[in-house]
Design a protein that fits this description.
- The longest helix is centred in the middle third of the chain and has 55 residues.
- The protein has a three-stranded mixed β-sheet. It has a two-stranded antiparallel ribbon with strand order 4-5.
- The protein contains 14 helices and nine strands.
- A hairpin with a 6-residue loop joins strand 7 and strand 8.
- It starts with 11 loop residues before the first helix and ends with a strand.
- Helices cover 65% and strands 9% of the residues.
- The radius of gyration is 43 Å and the shape is elongated.
- It is mostly helical.
Length: 372
């Protein structure tokens, strides 16, 4: 297997740290390029707010810096998901697909199937799904192809990657988190602004009241920037994540198509039709056995003579008497009577003289005796 199928590369702890390292790198690079994203101002303002100095939370610079931070964090998620999920999954599936495409025909694939099965069963991403698919394959003695009763895409699909990778499970929920964070920060800012404005509104100075009202509206305008950033980031993330899902599914589709080209799929409908044909052929044979032509062929072939020779070799004694008083008599269809003593130690089978089953004359008596 290749580099991108290495288990170290798919280790959960390593992937977690690399993912957040990429995201942090994107945010830091954006802070160097964008003037609105002032990380130092954000850290300083939050630190003062924790100590009780809330004035900085209402500043325009802080609101825009916080909104920019939300947008660049969304960009970091886009880049991190692309590198750690889309690219690596594509490369890992392509590596597994090369194990299939090396065999150009179905005959070559059947000859090297054991080797391919051994390698793909150890694949860190689709190994478990491949082992489940391998149980649905079989090979007939007169066939040069590997046959399967289940299409590969039923078992090998994006669901395998989603079960293996926690990030893919969370990918659909990430856009909603940005909406919640943006609204949460907006309402926190509005509550703080209303608290500051309420003190000025309660005063008797008309000019002070007007100034407090203007400040409240101004602060509210800034605070809605975080909501806009959260909603916009959610929309962009939803679009990118949907594209990522399609790309990952296309990687699995390519693998499954290459695999199906080298297999023979046996559907449940074809299995049912083969059973129908087999039962129809058996019914025809049973009808022939019950016909007069069958008995006529048996008479010409000397069936009764062969039965007579078998009876002679058995050395039956039709005058044999069963010593046990309790006997069970079973009448054989068209052949005579059979007697079996109920007592232990003696088993006796007697076929009395009667008509042969094919109507060709008298049949001899078959008698067997066994003593325990």
């Amino acid at each position: 297997m290749g580099l991108f199928s290495s288990r170290v590369l798919w280790n959960g702890v390593i992937r977690f740290f690399v993912f957040w390292l990429i995201l942090s790198g994107v945010v830091y690079a954006a802070s160097l390029a964008l003037p609105f994203l002032n990380l130092a101002l954000i850290v300083q303002t939050v630190d003062l707010a924790v100590k009780g100095q809330l004035e900085g939370l209402s500043s325009q610079a802080f609101a825009f810096a916080l909104a920019t931070l939300i947008a660049t964090t969304a960009l970091g998620f886009v880049v991190a998901y692309f590198l750690m999920h889309v690219v690596l999954i594509w490369l890992a599936i392509a590596d597994a697909g090369r194990q299939i495409t090396r065999q150009r025909t179905s005959v070559e694939f059947a000859e090297r199937f054991d080797t391919v099965d051994k390698r793909l069963s150890r694949h860190p991403l689709i190994g478990q799904a491949w082992r489940a698919f391998d149980q649905t394959t079989f090979r007939k003695n007169d066939s040069e192809q590997i046959q399967t009763t289940v299409r590969p895409g039923t078992l090998i699909n994006i669901g395998n990657a989603r079960e293996r990778l926690t990030g893919l499970k969370m990918m659909g929920s990430v856009p909603g988190y940005f909406v919640g964070v943006g609204l949460f920060l907006t309402f926190i800012g509005l509550v703080l602004a209303l608290q500051q404005a309420s003190a000025a509104v309660g005063s008797s100075d008309a000019e002070g009241m007007q100034a407090a009202t203007r400040q409240l509206l101004k602060v509210a305008t800034f605070k809605f920037a975080t909501s806009i950033a959260g909603l916009g980031s959610s929309i962009v993330l939803s679009i990118f994540f949907r594209i990522y899902t399609v790309w990952i599914e296309s990687a699995f589709d390519r693998f499954n198509h290459a695999l199906e080209d080298r297999l023979r799929f046996v559907s449940s409908q074809s299995i049912a039709w083969n059973m129908h044909e087999s039962l129809a052929a058996q019914l025809t044979e049973l009808k022939q056995i019950n016909s007069s032509d069958f008995f006529a062929r048996n008479r010409r072939g000397g069936t009764a003579d062969r039965a007579q020779a078998s009876v002679t070799r058995l050395g039956c004694d039709q005058r044999h008497r069963v010593r046990q008083p309790l006997q069970t008599t079973v009448r054989l269809a068209g052949a005579g009577n059979a007697r079996r003593p109920a007592g232990p130690g003696t088993i006796c089978l007697c076929l009395r003289r009667g008509r042969r089953f094919d109507g060709g004359g008298d049949a001899e008596v078959i008698c067997g005796n066994h003593r325990g």
